[in-house]
TrEMBL record:
It comes from the Bacteria. InterPro entries: DUF998. The chain crosses the membrane at residues 20-42, 62-83, 95-114, 134-155, 167-191, 197-218. Keywords: Membrane, Transmembrane, Transmembrane helix. This is DUF998 domain-containing protein. It holds the Pfam family DUF998.
Length: 228
C-alpha cells in the first residue's frame, strides 16, 4: 500500500492534534491539585484537614475554585477525546474514554452548581440544602464512580499485555483507592473526622494516575493508519 503526500500530511496533523489533546490530561489534573492545595492552605478560616475542597467555592475568592473546576473539566474532556483517538480499537477503547469524559463533565457540573456550606465553612453560613447544592453533591459522587470504573476498564485492556503488568496493577490500585476514599470520606465526615484529608488523598491519587497515563500515551509511538 502507498500513502500519498496528502495522506501523510493528514496523518501528521492528526498526530499533532492527538498529542495536544493528550497533553490536556497532564495539565488538567496538575492544575486541579495545585489549586486545591494552595487555596486550602491560604484561605482564612478554612481547615483542609476537615473541610472538602468543594467549600473553596464559597466565601471570598470562591470564584477561583469555581474556575478551577470548569477549566479542569474542559481539559479532562479534551483528554478523553484524545484517548479515544489514541486507543482506536480493542478492549476498553470505547468505554474508557466515555467514563473519563463523564469524569470531566462532573468537574464542570461541580463548578456550575455551587456546593452548600458544610462543617462550619464559611463561618456563620447556613447549612440548609439547596437544589444547586444537591446537584453539586451528585456530580461529586458521579466523579468518584466514573473514575473508578474507568480505571477498571482500562486495567482490563492492559492486562492482556504482559509488558504492562506493573501499570495494570497501578491502575487497579488507583481504582480501589478512589472508591475507598469516597466511602471513608462520608464516614469521617459523619464522625467529624479528617474528611478533607481523606478526600484529598483520593483526588491526588486519581489526578496522578491520569497525568501519568497522559504522559505515557504521549511518549508511545502513534499507530499509523494505512491509506491506499
Amino acid at each position: 500500500m502507498k500513502i500519498s503526500t496528502h495522506s501523510a500530511g493528514s496523518q501528521s496533523a492528526r498526530s499533532v492534534v492527538m498529542q495536544l489533546l493528550l497533553a490536556c490530561g497532564a495539565i488538567g489534573p496538575l492544575l486541579n491539585t495545585v489549586v486545591i492545595l494552595v487555596l486550602g492552605a491560604t484561605r482564612p478560616g478554612y481547615n483542609p484537614w476537615r473541610i472538602p475542597d468543594s467549600n473553596l467555592e464559597l466565601g471570598v475568592g470562591g470564584w477561583m475554585q469555581i474556575s478551577n473546576y470548569i477549566v479542569t473539566g474542559a481539559l479532562l474532556l479534551a483528554f478523553a477525546i484524545g484517548l479515544r483517538l489514541r486507543l482506536c480499537t480493542g478492549r476498553g477503547s470505547t468505554w474508557g474514554p466515555i467514563l473519563l469524559g463523564i469524569y470531566g463533565l462532573t468537574f464542570i457540573g461541580a463548578g456550575i452548581f455551587v456546593t452548600d456550606p458544610v462543617l462550619g465553612y464559611p463561618p456563620g453560613a447556613s447549612s440548609a440544602l439547596t437544589v444547586h447544592g444537591i446537584l453539586h453533591d451528585l456530580c461529586g459522587q458521579l466523579q468518584f464512580i466514573s473514575l473508578s470504573a474507568a480505571c477498571f476498564v482500562l486495567a482490563r485492556r492492559d492486562a492482556a499485555d504482559l509488558a504492562r503488568r506493573s501499570w495494570t496493577w497501578y491502575t487497579v490500585a488507583t481504582g480501589l483507592l478512589v472508591a475507598a476514599s469516597d466511602v471513608f470520606f462520608f464516614l469521617t465526615g459523619a464522625l467529624n473526622g479528617p474528611a478533607g484529608l481523606i478526600e484529598r488523598i483520593g483526588i491526588i491519587g486519581s489526578c496522578s494516575w491520569i497525568a501519568l497515563l497522559a504522559v505515557h500515551l504521549m511518549s508511545r509511538p502513534v499507530p499509523r493508519v494505512s491509506v491506499e
